[in-house]
Amino acid sequence: MSxxxxxxxxxxxxxxxxxxxxxxxxxxxxxxxxxxxxxxxEVEVTARKFPxxxxxxxxxxTVITNEEIKRSQGLSLSEVLxxxxxxxxxxxxxxxxxxxNVYVRGADPEYTLITVDGVPxxxxxxxxxxxxxxxxxxxxxxRIEILKGGQSVLYGTDAIAGVINIITKKAEANGFSPxxxxxxxxxxxxxxxxxxxxxxxxxxxxxxxxxxxxxxISEAVSEExxxxxxxxxxxxxxxxxxxxxxxTPALYxxxxxxxxxxxxxxxxxxFVDELDYTYExxxxxxxxxxxxxxxxGEIKALYSYNHTYRFFEDDSTLSQNGFSAxxxxxxxxxxxxxxxxxxxxxxxxxxxxxxxxxxxxxxxQYTLSVSEFGPFATxxxxxxxxxxxxxxxxxxFYNRGGEGFSTEAGLRGNRHSVYGENLLFNFSPSYxxxxxxxLFANVARAFRAPSLYQLYSEYSNPAEQxxxxxxxxxxxxxxxxxxxxxFSVRASAFYRDVNDVIAFDxxxxxxxxxxxxxxxxxxLEPAVYFGNRAKVAINYTYLKxxxxxxxxxxxxxxxxxxxxxxHSVSANVEYQVTDALLISSNVQWNGERQDAGFNETFDLEPxxxxxxxxxxxVNSQLSLFFRANxxxxxxxxxxxxxxxxxxxxxxxxxxxx
Length: 657
What we know:
By secondary structure, the chain is mainly beta.
């Protein structure tokens, strides 16, 4: 037994010594009246930094609840997100260790901000600085809030397409509650988690451990059917802990720590196998959050330190497919983030939020390549390879709590240590007509600051300082929830205009502010409930985008949303067969896409996925589950030259005490 599996076995043994606690019901966010009609309850969310009910939301918000996550056992975080309207995750169905690109409404990955418990996370060592979702196991997540459209007023840089706020598991309100999950499946994959959460007196706590170990598949595919590439394995371990102290009746303090490490095998490139190309990634976050109830409102403060380490090595002892006989690369990023803000209730239906936040980033990068021409090394280690930004923001929320007009309006002033200042705003009106009908809209100016790599690498521009990319985003829609709760639908449309897009100048080999990106789309999300036993939920996304390349000899405009389908559909059917047995099926269809490389474009065929899931509740503590992803063994391509998983079957158990 490997060390990782032994560690999980020990953790499971500890969990099974605990006391008994019942599991939650099938539809946690619903209730049933005397006629058997299902009624949707409000869910409390934190997308605007303070808890509020979803019916008070004036923007396009999707919540993946805790019950939905429980019914997603056997999936990765990327697979769960990929099933949502307007989201495509490139790499979700490829080799488990393949890098993931998150496209929200077709926007580049660096235009979507990832936050964990409200804390923005970045990788300062990356070209785009976007955070790697592979660090986050689904087993340690309580719920997910997806807020689409420009959100820079409250969240700062990178929130052009939206914010994905991941809420991790927290303490239980009372007592001592261990939990555990474990599954085994295709490609010799072990996936599991164990933890304990509870409270005692003024202290609450949660400690959790997760692991994933798989032989995987070959990252690259062979162009010759007779040639088989080696499997590329992947291993991840994650530990997270948070402790809360009610220091006084008005003051709550909670330190937290999260550590994640994964390693695996890589291939050389598209269609090219590699036998000894490996990587190891490490990330840890430490921080402290506090909540203080005062006579003028609630004050929240948080500090977080985020450290990322990435190391790649190709020793070429078993195969040499590239230029070098040996190469490695080490990338280190450090991020400090602090935020303090006040929520002041002006009246029963009017609230004011004011705050200030700080973000400081630095990186060190080293590469070494040894070839027949000798060694060649590069480094990025000067103390000046850093940036910081300070933002002051305010937002006004008006909500009558029922029918009528509601709105959110906000303003942020941001100062960056390199390029200077920029001003952001948002205006989000909504109107509830009663009878289940409501309209919503969001107009916002958002931005993305250049990354450290774009500012300081050998490809930085010595002649012209990079500015921030800025965007005007427009989002509007209509929502209907039938008063009896049997049917709901949301239809929305968006338009995004990004200016000063940072492009790579192939003539001078430097980064420049040059292009303009124009994107638009439609999202439809109907759902039908059949009593409290079954539901059918569908989402459809239409996406179109083009880039205007400016400042060249001849300005050009062309469609450029590569690897994102113009049309996509996801449908989920759930049926509670008995009180103990739940069966669900998910169908996904992605239309034609294009990929690009070396000034060529390639057509990628549409694909259809059928996924099934069954969960059987043995008793109030123990559930068994079975999952078959890509049941029809569809062969498709996410990225040209790289493989995708075929039929993927897994089964296991979940234990909640």
